[in-house]
Amino acid sequence: MHPQVKRLIEMLKALQVEGAPRLWELPPAAARRAADTMLASTFNEGGPTMVETLVIDVPGRHGAIPARLYVPEGVSGASPGLLYLHGGGWVLGSPDTHDRLTRELAAGIGARVVSLAYGLAPERPYPHGLDDCVDAARWLGAHGAALGIDPRRLLIGGDSAGGNLAAATLLRLRDEGGPAFRGAIYIYGAFSVGVATPSIEAWGDRDLILSIKVMEWFKGLYLSGGGSEADPYVSPLRADLAGLPPASLIVGTLDPLASDSELFAAALQKAGVAAELHVYDDAPHAFAQMFMLDMASDAVARISAFARARVS
């Protein structure tokens, strides 16, 4: 194992309290508070300074959707815009937990970033959170100029469950009439919900950041409103992917979701969509947020180069 990854895993294990309930053993609200506090305090130090960070509300069918707008240094006038959807199994996470990653992406791409606090399960099960993402994407297409975003140069991205939501959002936009996005960023996304892929079988019981037990807990809460694994907006690998924008995919070899990225990249290419896949040796789930790892900065650099090329 890469020595930096080994040290990281040892650090995370040291944070665990012996005998304390595991994430899936807690009520969802309590699990969210505990996980979000840990993530926000552990992975967000340092990174680029923004010229401006604003809390905004995006109108949606279920009501106002909170979001955070990041404006990096060197950006003036109408800029590209990235709609970013945080990970957390559709249950956890917020713009706070992904603050450094979104700042790194804003600076690396040279884009304004809208980090969306979409509705979380089980209080807001599928399709509520996805509806929020679709509504935010449509609003940026129609009103992004008010934020300094060029609506002709839109990108979408997300990690883990956020990668799933980014793909599902693009499918909904394609099927329901736009707007068009220039590129997609999928960071260790979940694209085949409920499927026992080779990487899940290899790493799902190792408890390296993500485990089968946690994934089943997330899935049960997300679909608690009656959603189905067979729905292509839940499992984008089941969808016809033709017409989606070019994509960059990032994943690590120690991630239970590694097969998801590999299969989704192949499916996109088969559907005629340009897709580049970057696989990082010895990288666990969520590594792109962990800037104590050199590979996190490398992943952001690769993503940023792809994104700049799409909106130049």
Outline:
The protein has 312 residues and is of the alpha/beta class.
Can you walk through the features of this model?
The chain is of the alpha/beta class. The protein has one domain: Rossmann fold (3-Layer(aba) Sandwich), CATH 3.40.50. It is built from 9 helices and 8 strands. The chain is globular. The model has no long low-confidence stretch (mean pLDDT 95).
- Annotated CATH homologous superfamily: Alpha/Beta hydrolase fold, catalytic domain
Identify low-pLDDT runs.
Answer: none
Cα separation of the termini: 38 Å
Beta-strand fraction estimate:
15-25%
The mean pLDDT is 95
What is the helix fraction of residues, given as a range? 25-40%
Domains, number: 1
Q: Please identify, by name, the CATH architecture.
A: 3-Layer(aba) Sandwich
H-E order: HHEEEHEHEHEHHEHEH
CATH class: Alpha Beta
Radius of gyration: 18 Å
Give, in spatial order, the strands making up the sheet with the most strands: 1-2-4-3-5-6-7-8
Count every beta strand, where a strand is a DSSP E run of 2 or more residues: 8
Overall geometry comes to globular
CATH topology: Rossmann fold
Biggest sheet character: 8 strands, mixed
Structural class: alpha/beta
Tally of contiguous helical segments: 9
What attributes characterize this protein structure?
single chain, 312 residues, alpha/beta, 8-stranded mixed sheet, Rossmann fold
Please write out the topology.
Elements: H1 3-15, H2 28-42, E1 50-58, E2 65-72, E3 79-85, H3 99-109, E4 112-116, H4 128-143, E5 149-159, H5 161-176, E6 183-187, H6 198-203, H7 212-222, E7 247-252, H8 258-270, E8 275-280, H9 294-311
Parallel strand pairs: 3-4, 3-5, 5-6, 6-7, 7-8
Antiparallel strand pairs: 1-2, 2-4
